[in-house]
Design brief:
Layout: E1 3-7, H1 16-27, E2 31-37, H2 41-47, E3 53-56, H3 72-90, E4 94-97, H4 103-112, E5 117-121, H5 128-133, E6 139-142, E7 156-158, H6 172-179, E8 187-191, H7 198-211, E9 216-220, E10 236-239, H8 246-252, E11 255-258, H9 262-271, E12 275-277, H10 288-298, E13 302-304, H11 312-324, H12 326-334, H13 341-357
Parallel strand pairs: 1-2, 1-4, 2-3, 4-5, 5-6, 6-7, 8-9, 8-11, 9-10, 11-12, 12-13
Helix pairs in contact: 1-13, 3-4, 6-8
């Protein structure tokens, strides 16, 4: 039986693409194991999938001063020793990493054990963890054409991001019913990210009287960001977050307003949803969301509003433009070569695993 070890963690974005690969890997007969941190978000998500999970010590690698910079290297070294022992025991044919700091000692241990590793980089420019891991990888998958210039040519493969199959099978009527919406009025879905965005929430809510004249608004506003004074507003539904119902909510949406995290926007591409992207500012991140959003804009998939330019007037104009020209954005997304990312990544895994067995 073929065996694969998956790794990655720290945020949901470092786990969900791995989860998207599970059904296809199981179909192909892989024995699947997962290495993550002791108590990161990846542990709960993977154990829910009934995949054997192994926790190791992990530390964050920082570009800025922090007292933990003195202790975390020892955690990484401990994690490396633990990963070496686990990989010796499991002896997989291939390792697939979605990144995050917990993946670094695992990739290094795989190199020591002569186990081929495939890395997936979500953003246009590789993050620090993947920069450290790339020299030890056999192949590096990426989401954006622009990323290829930052990767070794012999390792780089443009794959897109694996998307959960169930996300593509939503039911529009179920989504409308869930929100108590009418079927004959278009729906705007607003997603502020896992923690929401107070500023985006405020702008959207201030625009509601205007928007509700022509649209219904489904607002995923983040934990603790519900506005109870709007609970009985006709045509407006607000949720802190969505789980099992998310695929139906996507199916109900005609256009989407979203942050520009790499996995989130790749889901919009796979679903062919015309969208407005409001990336996190460079002050709040390393600027990766801005680069991600601008790439989608250049490819004709999105309208981009940088947070510093966001206002009622700017958002209102963008919504009108997007809705009026939505067929153009959908057509551009339909031409993308990254719509079957799961199969592309799995074929690469199969290729590497066969070489290892040969």
């Amino acid at each position: 039986m073929k065996r694969i070890v998956l790794t990655g963690g720290g945020t949901a974005g470092h786990v969900t693409p791995n989860i998207a690969l599970l059904p296809r890997l199981k179909e192909l007969g892989y024995d699947i194991h997962y290495i993550g941190s002791y108590d990161g978000i990846e542990r709960k998500l993977i154990e829910q999938c009934h995949i054997p999970y192994y926790g190791i010590s992990s530390g964050k690698l920082r570009r800025y001063f922090d007292w933990k910079n003195f202790s975390d290297p020892f955690k990484v070294m401990k994690g490396y020793r633990q990963a070496r022992a686990l990989l010796k025991k499991l002896n997989p044919d291939v390792l697939f990493s979605k990144g995050g700091f917990v993946s670094v000692p695992v990739i290094l241990a795989a190199k020591h054990r002569k186990i081929p590793a495939i890395i997936h980089e979500s953003d246009i420019t590789p993050g620090l963890a993947n920069k450290l891991a790339i020299p030890n990888a056999s192949k590096v998958c990426c989401n954006f054409p622009e990323t290829l210039q930052y990767l070794p040519a012999e390792k780089a493969v443009l794959t897109g991001s694996p998307i959960r199959k169930e996300l593509l099978s939503g039911n529009r009527l179920h989504g409308l019913t869930y929100c108590h919406f009418k079927p004959d009025k278009p729906v705007i879905l607003i997603i502020g990210g896992s923690s929401g965005s107070q500023f985006i929430n405020e702008v959207v809510r201030s625009l509601l009287p205007e928007l509700l004249q022509n649209y219904q608004v489904l607002h995923l506003c983040g934990k603790g960001n519900l506005d109870t004074t709007l609970n009985n507003t006709a045509g407006y539904a607000q949720l802190e977050y969505a789980n099992q119902e998310l695929s139906d909510l996507f199916a109900a949406a005609d256009i989407v307003i979203s942050r520009a995290g790499a996995n989130a926007i790749c889901e919009l591409l796979a679903l062919r949803k015309p969208n407005i992207l409001i990336p996190l500012s460079a002050n709040a991140s390393r600027g990766d969301q801005i680069l991600n959003a601008r790439s989608f804009e250049r490819q004709g998939y999105s309208i981009v509003i940088e947070e510093e330019q966001l206002s009622n007037v700017v958002l209102s104009d963008a919504i009108h433009k997007l809705f009026e020209n939505r067929s153009q954005y959908t057509a551009a997304m339909a031409k993308s070569e990254q719509l079957n990312s799961v199969e592309t990544v799995v074929q690469l895994i199969e290729q590497i695993a066969r070489k290892q067995k040969a």
